[in-house]
Specification:
heterodimer, A: 915 residues, alpha/beta, four-stranded antiparallel beta sheet, disordered N terminus, B: 157 residues, alpha+beta, 8 strands
C-alpha cells in the first residue's frame, strides 16, 4: 500500500491508480444508537468501564494504607520500642529518628502514588467520556444524513443544531463516572454499613432504617423532575428554533412591523422556560432538603437507642462513639450517590430526548449511503417506470401510478402546471425520493436498490432552489467529483505521525477515518488527467452554463498567490505593462493615475500615499492609522505632524461650517459629509476646546482624531485645497522614510507597491491597473473594463482570472451570489461529473428568457447522446426538447414527440397556449 | 481646482448668485466633478433626468431631435447651468447634450438638488427668481418671433 501511494505521488495522479490508503478501508458501519443511555454506554464502552473499575480497585490498598499510616506515625512518636526490622532477607536496626524519617518518606510516597492514581483514573475517564461523546455526535450526524428528504420539511435546523451540539455535551462528563462512581461510593457505603453492623446489629439497623423511605420517596419525587426536564429540553429547542427563524426572516418581521408580536411571543416562551426551571429548582432542593433532614434524623436513633444500650450496659461507650463517627463517614458517599442518581436521570432524559428525534421512519439505508462498489456501472438505456406512486404524509398522491419509458439518449421535457407532480417525478428519477409504490427500473435493476455511489456519480441533478455550502465557488463546483480520498496527502514525518494518531482516534470513536487533507478529486470522473486540465474543463463548463463572465468578474476582484502561481503572477505583470500601453494607444491614459514611488497619487487617500503598500492584518488598518505609533514616529521624523494636525483642524472647520452651522439635517450630513453625523458634534466641541491655545495643547486622542481627517482626503475628489504640491512632496518623502525604517516586526504587516512586482494583497484588477481610477471621468469604469478584457484575452489570461474567481467565497448558503448565478453553478457542478443522465428540476427559473434558451441549448450540446430530463417551469420551453411527458394531478396524461404534441388539441399545446 | 475656486465660479452663475457663501461651499463640496471627453454624450433627449450640470470648462452642444434630424440649437460654455428643468419638472430630457471639447462639469444629482431646495428654502426662492426671469426672456423672444412671423406672413400675402 505504501509503495503504491509513493509511486502515485511521483507520477501525474490518475484515478485508475487511486491509491489513498485511507480509501481502501471502508467507512465503519455504525453500530446504531440504542434507545437507552445505559444501553449506549454498555455497548460502546464496557471494556473501558471495566478498566476504570479495575484501576479504582488496585488504587484502594494504597489509599487505605495512606489513611492508616498516620496512626502508626503518631504511635511511634509517642511510644517508642526499639526493635529490629526483619524483612525476610535482612535485618535492619533503626533508631527512633531514622524510623520516623522512613515512615514520613513512605507517607510522602503514598501521597504521590495516590495522586498519580487519581490523575490517571481521571484522564482515563475523561478520554472515555470524550470518545463516547464524539461517537454519539458522529452517529447523530450519520443519521441526519440518512433522514428521508421529506423529513426535513418537518424538522427545523434550529431544533436539530442544539441536539447535536449543546444537548449531548453533558454526556461526556457523565459517561466516565457511569459505573465507577456507584461502584466505588456504593462499595464504601456497604463497607461502612457492614462495620456498623459488626459493632452492633441494632445500631446498624438504626443507621439504615430511613434508607427504605428515602429509596421510595426520592425516585417518586425525581420522576416529576424528570418530566419537567423533558419539557425544559423541548422548550429550549423551540427557543433555538425561534432564534434561527428570526435570523432568516428578519426582513419579513420588519416589513410587517411585527417586532412587537415577535418579542412578545419570544418573551412568553422564555416565561415558560422560567416556570419550568423554577419548579425544577424547587423540587430538586426539596429532594435535597428531605434527604438532609432524614440523614440528620438518624443520629436521633443512635442517641436514643445507643444511649439506652450503653446505660443498660449492653454496649460500650467507645463503641457508640465509633458508630457515630462511622455514621458521619456514611454521609459523604450517600450524598455522592444521590447526586449521581439525579445526574443520571438528567443525562438520561437528554439522551433519550435527542435519540428519539433521530429515528424518523424510512431512513436511508446506511449501506446504500456509504457502500463503495468495486465498479460503478454506467446508467444506460431507459428509465422504465411502472406504477410509480408517491404518497405524502397527508395521504395526497402527488405522483399517481405513472408508467412510462423514459429514453436516456435524448432530451426529454416533463411539463405540467404547478402541483402536477412534475417536480416530485424529477426527484424520484434522481432517487432523491423513493416511490411509495411501483418501481423505476434501470439497467435491469430497481433504481431504489442502487447505492448512492452509483446514483450520485451517474445521475446529475439540479434543483430550482439550490443550496451552496459556505466555501469557495470552486469547492462548491468540485463537490461533484469529490466522493472519497484518492491520493494520500504528503506529510512531513512529524506531521504524518500526528495525523496517524488523529485518524486512529477517529476510528476508536467509531468515526469515519478518512483524511480530509487527502486529494479527493476524481479527475477521471471529470474526464481529465490532472489539475491543470481540470481547470480548463471547469472554465469550459462555466462557459456552457453562461457563468464564465460572472466568475471572470469575481476573479478580477479576487487575489492570486504569486508564490503558488508564479507563472500567472509573471503573466499578470506583463499584463500591467500591456494595459498601460493599450490605454495610451487608445487615448485613455487619463483614466488611470498610475502608482509611482516618487510621485503623490492625487486619486488615492493621503494615508494610502503614505503607506504606498497594501496593509496585511490590523496593524496598518486605515481606520486606526492615526493612532499607530510607528506612523506617528515617521511623521515626527519628517516633521509633518503639526502640519497634518493643522490640516485636520481646517477640514473639521470646513465640515462644521458647511454641515453643522448651516443646519443641514442628519440625513443630509450622513449622505454628503466627510465626517459622519455622529462624529460631527464631537469635532464641533473639539474645535471649541481648541480655542486660541492651538493644537499642541490638545490631548493625545484629540490630536489623533484630527490627524485622522487629512488621512482620509483624496486630493482629486475632496478639492479642499489642503494638500498642495509642497505637502505632496513631503508626504512622498515620508513614504520613503516609512519604508526604509520599517521595523522587522511590522515587515509582515504591509506589502509595498512596486512597479515590477506582483502584489499578493491587491486584487488582480488592481495589479493590472497599478494605479487609481481617475476621479470624475465619465464612464471610466466601463471603458477601463473593456481595455482590461482586451489585455486579458490578448495575454491569454482569462482562465487564470476565472481560476482566481473560483476562490470567491459564496457566503452562507451561497448568499453572495444571485439566485440565477446559484442555479447556473449547480447545473455546472452536475455537468462537471459527466453524468449519464442529467435531471434538471425547474433549475433555470431565476434566469431571464433569452439567457434561458441559450442555457438550454448549451446543456443539450454538452449532453449530446446522453440522457437529459428537464422538468420545466414553463411549458413553452418544451419546444426545445425532443420528447415531452405531460403531468396533471400526479398522473401522466400525455407523452410523445414534442412535434406531435405541440398542437392546439393536445395537452401540451393547451398548456403552452395558456401561458 | 479647489473648492474655493468652485465657490467663486458658482457665485458668477446667476442661478446661485443670491445664495450665501456657506451654502455655495456646501454645493461645491457635495456636487461631483465629472469630466467628459470630446464627443461624449452626457445624456440623450428622452432620457430620464437624474442630474443637473454646471460647466467648469469646455463647451457643450445642445442638440434637439427635429423632424429633419438632429439640430444643434445652442452651444453652452463655462459657468453655464443646464439640466435643472428635467429635475424640477420631473420630465424627460428635452435635448441631447454632447461635449464639443473636453468638458469638465460639476454634476449635481437630482437627489442632492431636490434636497438642497428642501433644506434651504432661500436657495429655492433665488432659483425661482432666476427661472422666472429665464421664462420671461423666453416669452419675450417668443413675442418677437411671433411678431416677425406675422410680419413675414402679411408680406407674403
Amino acid at each position: 500500500m505504501k509503495e503504491l501511494s509513493f509511486t502515485a505521488r511521483l507520477r501525474t495522479p490518475r484515478t485508475d491508480e487511486a491509491t489513498a490508503a485511507a480509501a481502501q478501508t471502508p467507512p465503519p458501519r455504525s453500530g446504531g444508537i440504542p434507545h437507552s443511555l445505559r444501553g449506549f454506554i454498555w455497548l460502546y464502552s464496557w471494556r473501558q468501564q471495566v478498566g476504570v473499575l479495575f484501576l479504582i480497585l488496585i488504587s484502594q490498598p494504597f489509599l487505605y494504607y495512606s489513611l492508616d499510616l498516620p496512626k502508626t506515625i503518631i504511635n511511634i512518636i509517642t511510644k517508642w520500642q526499639p526493635h529490629d526490622f526483619d524483612i525476610g532477607v535482612a535485618t535492619f536496626h533503626l533508631n527512633h529518628l531514622n524510623y520516623l524519617w522512613v515512615l514520613c518518606g513512605l507517607y510522602l510516597l503514598l501521597v504521590l502514588i495516590n495522586g498519580a492514581f487519581k490523575y490517571v483514573i481521571n484522564v482515563y475517564k475523561g478520554r472515555m467520556g470524550e470518545r463516547m461523546l464524539r461517537r454519539l455526535r458522529y452517529e447523530l450526524y450519520v443519521r441526519l444524513l440518512r433522514f428521508p428528504i421529506g423529513h426535513f420539511k418537518k424538522v427545523s435546523p434550529g431544533e436539530i443544531i442544539p441536539m447535536i451540539t449543546s444537548e449531548v455535551e453533558p454526556l461526556g462528563g457523565f459517561i466516565g463516572d457511569f459505573f465507577a462512581l456507584p461502584a466505588f461510593q456504593g462499595g464504601t457505603l456497604l463497607t461502612i454499613v457492614l462495620f456498623l453492623f459488626i459493632q452492633d446489629p441494632v445500631l446498624g439497623l438504626a443507621a439504615i432504617s430511613l434508607y427504605p423511605i428515602q429509596g421510595y420517596v426520592i425516585p417518586k419525587l425525581q420522576r416529576k423532575v424528570n418530566q419537567l426536564g423533558k419539557a425544559r429540553v423541548r422548550t429550549v429547542r423551540r427557543v433555538a428554533d425561534r432564534v434561527s427563524e428570526t435570523t432568516y426572516g428578519v426582513a419579513e418581521i420588519h416589513a410587517n412591523d411585527s417586532a412587537r408580536y415577535q418579542l412578545t411571543s419570544f418573551a412568553s416562551l422564555l416565561g415558560v422556560i422560567y416556570e419550568i426551571r423554577y419548579e425544577i429548582y424547587q423540587r430538586k432542593f426539596f429532594v435535597k432538603f428531605l434527604n438532609n433532614t432524614l440523614n440528620a434524623l438518624t443520629p436521633f436513633f443512635f442517641f436514643s437507642i445507643g444511649g439506652y444500650l450503653v446505660i443498660r450496659g449492653q454496649l460500650s461507650a467507645g463503641a457508640l462513639v465509633a458508630v457515630l463517627s462511622a455514621y458521619k463517614d456514611l454521609a459523604g458517599p450517600w450524598k455522592e450517590l444521590l447526586d449521581y442518581y439525579q445526574n443520571f436521570q438528567d443525562t438520561k432524559i437528554k439522551y433519550e430526548q435527542v435519540v428519539e428525534q433521530f429515528r424518523p421512519e424510512h431512513m436511508l439505508d446506511e449501506k446504500l449511503m456509504l457502500e463503495e462498489p468495486p465498479v460503478i456501472p454506467h446508467i444506460k438505456g431507459e428509465f422504465a417506470l411502472s406504477g410509480v406512486t408517491l404518497v405524502e404524509e397527508d395521504h395526497a398522491r402527488v405522483v399517481d401510478g405513472v408508467s412510462a419509458t423514459i429514453p436516456l439518449d435524448r432530451s426529454v421535457a416533463i411539463v405540467g402546471a404547478g402541483g402536477s407532480g412534475k417536480h416530485e417525478l424529477a426527484l424520484l428519477l434522481a432517487r432523491l425520493l423513493m416511490p411509495t409504490a411501483g418501481r423505476i427500473g434501470i439497467n435491469g435493476s430497481d433504481l431504489s436498490t442502487l447505492p448512492i455511489a452509483v446514483v450520485g456519480r451517474r445521475i446529475g441533478y439540479a434543483g430550482a432552489t439550490p443550496y451552496l455550502f459556505t466555501q469557495s465557488l470552486g469547492e462548491n463546483l468540485l463537490a461533484a467529483i469529490k466522493q472519497r480520498p484518492l491520493r494520500d496527502p504528503q506529510y512531513e514525518p512529524l506531521r504524518a505521525k500526528t495525523r496517524a494518531i488523529q485518524l486512529r482516534e477517529a476510528r476508536l470513536a467509531g468515526n469515519i477515518a478518512y483524511d480530509i487533507e487527502a486529494d479527493w478529486i476524481d479527475y477521471e470522473a471529470a474526464g481529465v488527467k490532472d489539475r491543470q486540465k481540470l481547470t480548463e474543463r471547469v472554465v469550459e463548463v462555466l462557459h456552457r452554463v453562461d457563468l464564465d463572465q460572472d466568475v471572470y468578474l469575481l476573479g478580477l476582484r479576487g487575489r492570486l498567490d504569486p508564490k503558488k502561481r508564479a507563472d500567472a503572477a509573471a503573466a499578470l505583470l506583463q499584463g500591467r505593462k500591456a494595459f498601460r500601453e493599450r490605454l495610451a494607444a487608445e487615448g485613455l491614459a487619463h483614466l488611470v493615475e498610475p502608482f509611482d514611488a516618487d510621485r503623490y497619487n492625487t486619486n488615492a487617500t493621503l494615508a494610502e500615499n503614505l503607506l504606498f503598500g497594501m496593509p496585511i492584518g490590523p496593524a496598518f488598518d486605515t481606520a486606526e492609522l492615526s493612532t499607530n505609533t510607528y506612523v506617528l514616529a515617521v511623521l515626527n521624523q519628517v516633521g509633518l505632524t503639526e502640519q497634518l494636525v493643522e490640516g485636520g483642524i481646517q477640514v473639521a472647520r470646513t465640515m462644521v461650517e458647511i454641515f453643522a452651522d448651516g443646519g443641514a439635517s442628519e440625513e443630509f450630513v450622513e449622505q454628503f459629509s466627510f465626517i459622519s453625523a455622529e462624529e460631527l458634534p464631537v469635532y464641533q466641541t473639539l474645535l471649541g476646546r481648541l480655542g486660541k491655545a492651538g493644537a499642541p495643547t490638545l490631548a493625545r486622542e484629540d490630536r489623533a482624531r484630527l490627524l485622522a481627517l487629512p488621512f482620509r482626503l483624496v486630493v482629486a475628489r475632496h478639492r479642499l485645497g489642503l494638500i498642495d504640491e509642497a505637502l505632496q512632496a513631503r508626504i512622498v518623502e515620508a513614504r520613503k522614510v516609512f519604508a526604509a525604517s520599517l521595523p522587522p516586526v511590522l515587515a509582515g504587516s504591509i506589502e509595498f507597491l512596486a512597479e515590477d512586482r506582483y502584489n499578493s494583497v491587491a486584487t488582480i484588477q488592481d495589479n493590472l491597473l497599478f494605479g487609481r481610477l481617475a476621479y470624475g471621468e465619465a464612464n471610466a469604469e466601463t471603458r477601463l473594463a473593456a481595455v482590461i478584457a482586451e489585455v486579458i484575452d490578448a495575454l491569454d489570461l482569462r482562465a487564470t482570472v476565472i481560476e482566481a474567481g473560483l476562490d470567491f467565497n459564496v457566503g452562507p448558503g451561497g448568499s453572495r451570489l444571485s439566485q440565477a448565478q446559484r442555479q447556473k453553478l449547480v447545473i455546472a457542478r452536475a455537468l462537471l461529473k459527466r453524468p449519464d443522465v442529467m435531471i434538471v428540476d425547474e433549475a433555470t427559473s431565476a434566469i431571464d428568457g433569452p439567457a434561458q434558451a441559450k442555457l438550454i441549448q448549451g446543456i443539450k450540446q454538452e449532453l449530446e447522446g446522453r440522457g437529459l430530463i428537464w422538468s420545466l417551469h414553463r411549458a413553452v420551453l418544451a419546444r426545445q426538447f425532443k420528447e415531452a411527458f405531460v403531468m396533471r394531478d400526479g398522473r401522466l396524461v400525455e407523452q410523445g414527440a414534442v412535434t406531435d404534441l405541440d398542437r392546439p388539441d393536445k395537452e401540451l399545446g393547451k398548456l403552452i397556449a395558456s401561458e | 481646482m479647489s473648492i474655493h475656486e468652485e465657490v467663486d465660479m458658482l457665485r458668477r452663475i446667476p442661478l446661485f448668485g443670491q445664495i450665501e457663501p456657506a451654502k455655495l461651499k456646501l454645493i461645491a463640496f457635495t456636487s461631483e466633478r465629472v469630466a467628459f471627453d470630446a464627443g461624449t454624450t452626457l445624456f440623450h433627449q428622452g432620457d430620464a433626468a437624474n442630474a443637473a450640470y454646471i460647466i467648469v470648462e469646455g463647451k457643450a452642444e445642445v442638440v434637439v431631435e427635429g423632424p429633419g434630424g438632429p439640430v444643434t440649437v445652442a452651444v453652452l460654455g463655462a459657468n453655464e447651468f443646464f439640466g435643472e428643468m428635467g429635475i424640477l419638472g420631473d420630465v424627460p430630457r428635452t435635448a441631447t447634450i454632447v461635449a464639443q471639447s473636453r468638458l469638465v462639469t460639476l454634476r449635481i444629482s437630482k437627489d442632492l438638488f431636490l434636497r438642497l431646495i428642501k433644506e434651504f428654502p432661500a436657495m429655492a426662492v433665488s432659483m425661482l427668481r432666476v427661472m422666472a426671469s429665464r421664462l420671461e426672456a423666453t416669452n419675450r423672444q417668443l413675442r418677437t418671433e411671433h411678431a416677425e412671423l406675422e410680419r413675414l406672413r402679411s408680406q407674403s400675402a
